[in-house]
Amino acid sequence: MHHTSRTALRRSLKRVHQRTLSTSAPAPPVQITTLPNKIRVATEATPSHFSALGLYVDAGSRYETPSTLGVSHFVDRLAFKTTATRSQEEMSAAIDQMGGQIMCASARESMMYQSTHFHQANPLALSLIADTVINPAFLDDEISLQRDAARYEIREINSKPDMILPEILHEVAYDGKTLGIPLLCPEERIDHINRDCIREYMQRLYTPERMVVAGAGMQHEELVELVDKYFSSLKPTTFIPPHPLQPTSRQNNPQHPVAPHLIPKSPGSLYKSLTRAASYLTPSVTLEPGYSSVLNPQSTYTGGHRFLHREDSEFNHLYLAFEGVSIHDDDIYALATMQVLLGGGGSFSAGGPGKGMYSRLYTHILNHYPQVDHCASFHHIYSDSSLFGLFASFVPKAGRHHGNTADQILPHLVHQLSLLLYAPVSETELSRAKNQLKSSLMMALESRAVEVEDLGRQILVHGRKISVSEMCEKVDELTPESIRKTAERVFGPRSGNKATIVCMGRDDVRDWKGVLRKYSVAGA
Questions:
Q1: How far apart are CA 272 and CA 440, in angstroms?
Q2: I want to staple 379 with a disulfide (CB 3.0 to 4.6 A). Which of 28, 224, 329, 339 is the partner?
Q3: Where is average pLDDT lowest: 12-21, 102-111, 123-132, 463-472?
Q4: How many helices (H) does the chain have, and how many strands (E)?
């Protein structure tokens, strides 16, 4: 057989094989079981040499009350320490014996305990997670050590504008309530965190109906048996915790009619942004009539402005945000695509020439203004709200330096938003943004840890698994007109939305409302 014939045959067989795979390899099935005590167990049957499992709790800083403010930070730090059944040394030895990775992470709307390990370590991994959640000792010595660690963390994060400013942005946007409660324990609260307030917090929120145990790379029946073994002692409760830090004063926010119901700074994972909201068990909240946000009646979004004077700052920093739609809203896909379309990043592209260079913030701002060191879009998504906006870090205007004031940079940011309102997005540009978003969604799931986290959080948030193919179909349905309509809904002049502006550096933005009016953008 000639070489060309053999090559043609191999190609033909390869095409047949690819077609067979495409029709006979459906998405891995997701199984969900609810145990008698209401804890949910979910698995996704994806073969691998490793297993991953995690416990996801509908808790986090947004649920803190005045008496438990800052507790989430300490619960995170005190995980996998001394318990009623294991000393600190025994806990450490068991983690070493497991030979994998185990961790706890706190967020605004969830607490996560997660492990990646060899298959045979499944029982040990879940027993360690159950032990640290059900039987924590909270020794005075360990709490004291974490107080010192918390003070160090606060100093470190306060010295890094890119880390502290998103926290301040949330505080201003939500008036220091619910989603505006800081992730880190406030410094003045550190010495008030003790065993009693930690237990109060966990008894109120760590109930089985607020928990999901998820696994990937293991049999569903195996995980159900393990969860029943280690978590059956938890009893369900019908108690609905009071919403933290309820607003007590009426706000003069005029209500505008909007369309009826219209989907860790961690820009590297858009997939996490789309799935990392807290719970479909939205807390029962009775807010005063005027306090509800325009887009999300349950949230406490108020918008606002804050200036932090830093005379010795290397750069000025400016954040502009609006409240976006919640994780349950179909417009979340349009908003996520808008974030990719705006894009941006640093003035130096670590990914090499061309990485993200077609995004609007690169082509319209970073490529034209060398004094701008960083300019990017962001989108923080939650169960009943989100924050969408832009930020810039730029050389301040001082002496002979060719820098800028915040007043000079703000119009550039507002102009980029106004273009989404008043200039149609081309099909080519929209297609590029949609492809980037879809590839980010798919590539994130290459990680076993991300896969199990996604599964656990989605069951916690939606009560079901939304497949990546379903998400991609939603993205594919977007048109230039749907992008414009979503932009109008979030920051259009008739949306009734309010702007949130945070500025750090040598000078503040002055007439920011005038700038918004000039470009016919909401928030003035």
A1: 10
A2: 339
A3: 12-21
A4: 17, 12
Q: How many CB atoms lie within 10 A of CB 147?
A: 17
Looking at 110-114, 168-172, 236-240, 279-283, which range is the least confident one?
Answer: 279-283
Measured CA to CA, the distance from residue 87 to residue 93 in angstroms comes to: 10
DSSP for residue 27: P
Burial of 113 (0-12, 13-18, 19+ CB in 10 A): buried
CA neighbor of 280 nearest in space, from 327, 236, 240, 244: 327
* CA 516 to chain centroid: 27
Query: Residue 101: which H helix or E strand, with range?
Result: strand 101-106
Q: Are 500 and 322 in contact (CB under 8 A)?
A: yes
Four-CA torsion 444, 164, 416, 440, nearest 10 degrees? 0
State the DSSP H helix or E strand holding residue 156, giving kind and residue range, or none if neither: helix 140-158
| Structural domains in the chain plus CATH codes | 30-231 (3.30.830.10), 270-518 (3.30.830.10)
Say if CB 508 and CB 318 are below 8 A apart.
Answer: no
Which amino acid, one-letter code, is at 370?
P
Choose among 477, 356, 478, 377: nearest CA to 419.
Answer: 377
What's the rounded Cα separation, in Å, for the pair 345 and 343?
7
Write down the pTM of the prediction: 0.83
